[in-house]
Specification:
By secondary structure, the chain is an alpha+beta fold. It has one domain. About 20% of the residues lie in helices and about 40% in strands. The protein has a 6-stranded antiparallel β-sheet, with no helix packed on it. A hairpin with a 4-residue loop joins strand 3 and strand 4. The protein is globular and about 40 Å long. The chain starts with a strand and ends with a helix. The relative contact order is 0.17.
Length: about 90
């Protein structure tokens, strides 16, 4: 996937050639896992009218992002903890 120059978006092209643009919400590096994580969305809503949010492990190679699935429960706990914190901070700002 290629990042746009403004670094807030990236585009994924699937095996059928369909492109989907994602907005990067935030990135972080965990000292616990020594990996970099990215949280992103394409602003699509689920059945409850909530915006779908995704998280992956990432590596940068120039303008290319390499995303990997988060499969370890410990890693998901790290991501969920940070997402909960970010959500609470956004509520305080409103």
């Amino acid at each position: 996937m290629t990042k746009k120059k403004d670094l807030n978006y990236f585009t994924v092209t699937d095996s059928k050639g369909k492109e989907t643009e994602y907005e990067i919400l935030f990135t972080f590096e965990s000292e616990d896992t020594n990996k970099k994580y990215i949280v992103y969305t394409n602003n699509e809503k689920d059945k409850d009218d909530m915006i779908k949010t995704y998280a992956s492990i990432y590596e940068e190679d120039g303008d290319v992002l390499k995303l990997s699935k988060i499969e370890d429960e410990k890693e998901w706990n790290v991501v969920e903890k940070l997402l909960n914190h970010a959500t609470e901070e956004m509520k305080k700002e409103d």
